[in-house]
Every structure is written in structure tokens, then in C-alpha cells.
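Quick one:
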Amino acid sequence: MVKLVHETEAVEKADRELPLFSLLPNLITVGAICAGLTAIRFAFQESYVAAVYLILLACILDGLDGRIARYMKSESQLGAELDSLADFANFGIAPALVIYAWALQDLKRAGWIAVLFFAVCCVMRLARFNVDNKSELDGNSEFFTGVPAPAGAMLVLLPMFLSFLWPNEVQSYAGLIAIYMGAIGLLLVSRVPTYSFKTTTVRRRRITYILVGFAVLVAMLLTYPWSSLIAIDLAYFGIIIWSYFKHRSNKKAAG
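Output:
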């Protein structure tokens, strides 16, 4: 009898009505997956600029869905699993296949090995993040362990950003591009501390400067997208180096 009551309650709970607006975070995640998969299609149609723009859109949507879910207090286990799958599709599979279609097809086996290596590194990075997140090892840490998947996707696309500024100058170095892809994959699964920005705070009197700076950044991205993205990638490499020495300094101070 008790079991029947529990089963009835479980069915009622699973079938309860929800506001349609509460599905917005999951809809954004699904939209991000569609953007990432469509980027692959455009790449094999040789529309490389459109493919890269779609991956950038997927990155933006990935940054929105979780924050909107937390703001609306509509977080769910389904949303968390969907977000993790979206991250693998958008940051592990899509960038690797876009680069393969763009520059690595002539390498044949070696090019495909680079794609597989990067994708596997990405899925391992995401799996480790999920485990650490559930055990609250990474929850409020100042540093990530390894480069986050979205940042890895942006870094691995750096050769394409360069080629859009200097056509035919970068694409011919397919071997170096494959090695570079493998190196970014290693950064994803490495133990290198990478600043997370989650604990970053700002004084109230500086908010105006932050907003103005953000407006300038957006204007630069809209006006000079490839130069700006190259600068952002190079700055992020600088942050990785700074994070390593900062983490070492913190450990020495704590020890």
C-alpha cells in the first residue's frame, strides 16, 4: 500500500504543470546544440566564416543558459546533463570538425587523429569537471584545473582567425595546425591552473569603467572581429601563464 502511494506521488510529481517560461534555459541549450551542429554543415560546404560565427554563437548561448537557470531558480538534473552534452558537441566536436574541413583533410589519417585527440581530451575535461562539481571540489575555487572547454574551443580556432586576416598564409601549414590542435587538447586535460573569474569582484565606483570597457570590446568585436578574437586568444594565453605563477605563489604563501 505504501509503495503504491509513493508511486502515485512520483507520477503526479513527474506530470505536474510547469510555467512554459521555466523551459527557457533548456531551449537556449538546444539552440546552442543546433548552432554547433550547423557550424559543421557550413564548414563542409566551405562557408568557414559562417561556421565560426555559429560556434561563437554557441559559446554565447552556453554562457547564458546556466546563468538564466540560476536566476529563474529553474535548475534541473535534465538541464545539467543537457548542458554537458551541449558542451561536448559545441566545444569538442564542432571546432575540431570545422578545422578538419578547413585545413586538415589533405593530411588524411594524421588530420583525423588530431580531431579525435582533441575531441577525446574535451570529453575527458568535461567529465572531470562534472565529477569535481558534484563533489564540490571546484565549486568556489579561484582556479579551474586545466583550460575550460569553451576557452579551449576559442583557442583551437586561433589559426582560422588568423587565416581570415591573412588568407592563404595560414591554411597551408596543415601539419602545424594539427600539432596546435593536439597541444590545446593537452591543455584541456592538463592540471594547469587557469583563473576562473568566478571569484572576481569589482568596487562600485569602478562599475562605470567596466561597462564602458565592455561596450568598447563589443564595438571592437563587431568592427574588427578577427583582430579582436586573435587579441582575446593571445590575452588568454597570457592569463594561463599568469595563473600558473599566481597559483604557485598562493601555495607557497599557504604552505
